[in-house]
C-alpha cells in the first residue's frame, strides 16, 4: 500500500513539531569550591591531610584549581581546558608531561590524562566527576594505570563549600 502525499506531509509535520519540543539537555554546573571529605572517600593511597578543588565552569571552558596539603606542605595544580574532547592541553614539569583532554559523558565531566614521566614511564589517569542530585556533593572516580601494572580505582568525595556573603 502506497502512502498518500497528505499522510506523508502530516507525518513530516508531526515529526517536525516533536523535534522542536525537544530542547538540548543542559549540563550540570560544577562551579564552586569543593572541600575533600576523607571519611566518604576511598583512595588507593594515603590521602592528603586536606584538599580543596575550585571549579569555574563557563561551557565549554572549565578551569580547575586544586590545592593538596601533605605534612604541612601545600601543592597546587591548575588547568584551563575546553570540555569538548578535542582540544588537548599539554602540561610540562621536570617530573612529567601530561596530555590532557576533557569531555562530557552524559551528566559527568571526564578528565582524561596521558602521562609520560621523565624516565619514560607511561601512565593514564581518567577522572570522572559527577554531582549529587542536590548539587552539594562532588564525586570523582579516578582510574589510574602505570606501565604494565594493574589499574587502580580511587573514589574522592568533596562537599560544596558555602559561598561567603559579599562585603558591601
Please tag this protein with its features:
168 residues; mainly beta; Lipocalin; 10-stranded antiparallel beta sheet; 10 strands; 10% helix; globular
Outline the structure in words.
The structure is a single chain. The chain is mostly beta strands. The protein has one domain (29-160): Calycin beta-barrel core domain (Lipocalin, Beta Barrel), CATH 2.40.128.20. The protein is 10% helix and 52% strand. The chain is built from 1 helix and 10 strands; from the N terminus they run αββββββββββ. It has a 10-stranded antiparallel beta sheet, with no helix packed on it. Strand 7 and strand 8 (122-131) form a beta hairpin. It is globular. The model is unreliable at 5-23 (pLDDT under 50).
What's the quick description here?
The chain has 168 residues and is mainly beta. It contains 1 helix and 10 strands.
Largest sheet: 10 strands, antiparallel
The count of DSSP E runs of length 2 or more, i.e. the number of strands, is 10
The largest sheet has its strands arranged as: 4-3-2-1-10-9-8-7-6-5
Number of domains: 1
The SS-based structural class is: mainly beta
Number of helices: 1
Low-confidence stretches: 5-23
Strand percent estimate: over 45%
| Pattern of helices and strands | HEEEEEEEEEE
| Name of the CATH superfamily | Calycin beta-barrel core domain
- CA-based shape: globular
Radius of gyration: 22 Å
Q: What is the typical, i.e. mean, pLDDT?
A: 88
The CATH architecture is Beta Barrel
CATH class category = Mainly Beta
CATH topology: Lipocalin
Quote the distance from N terminus to C terminus. 74 Å
Share of residues in helices: 10-25%
Amino acid at each position: 500500500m502506497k502512502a498518500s502525499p497528505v499522510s506523508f506531509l502530516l507525518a513530516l509535520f508531526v515529526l517536525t513539531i516533536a523535534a522542536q519540543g525537544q530542547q538540548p539537555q543542559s549540563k550540570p554546573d560544577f562551579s564552586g569550591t569543593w572541600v575533600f571529605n576523607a571519611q566518604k572517600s576511598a583512595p588507593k593511597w594515603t590521602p592528603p591531610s586536606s584538599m580543596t578543588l575550585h571549579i569555574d565552569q563557563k561551557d565549554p571552558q572549565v578551569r580547575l584549581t586544586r590545592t593538596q596539603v601533605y605534612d604541612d606542605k601545600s601543592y597546587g595544580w591548575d588547568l584551563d581546558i575546553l570540555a569538548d574532547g578535542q582540544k588537548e592541553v599539554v602540561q610540562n614539569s621536570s617530573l612529567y608531561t601530561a596530555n590532557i583532554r576533557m569531555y562530557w559523558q552524559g551528566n559527568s565531566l571526564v578528565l582524561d590524562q596521558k602521562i609520560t614521566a621523565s624516565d619514560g614511564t607511561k601512565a593514564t589517569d581518567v577522572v570522572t566527576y559527577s554531582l549529587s542530585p542536590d548539587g552539594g556533593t562532588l564525586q570523582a572516580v579516578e582510574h589510574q594505570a602505570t606501565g604494565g601494572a594493574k589499574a587502580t580505582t580511587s573514589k574522592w568525595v568533596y562537599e560544596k563549600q558555602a559561598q561567603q556573603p559579599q562585603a558591601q
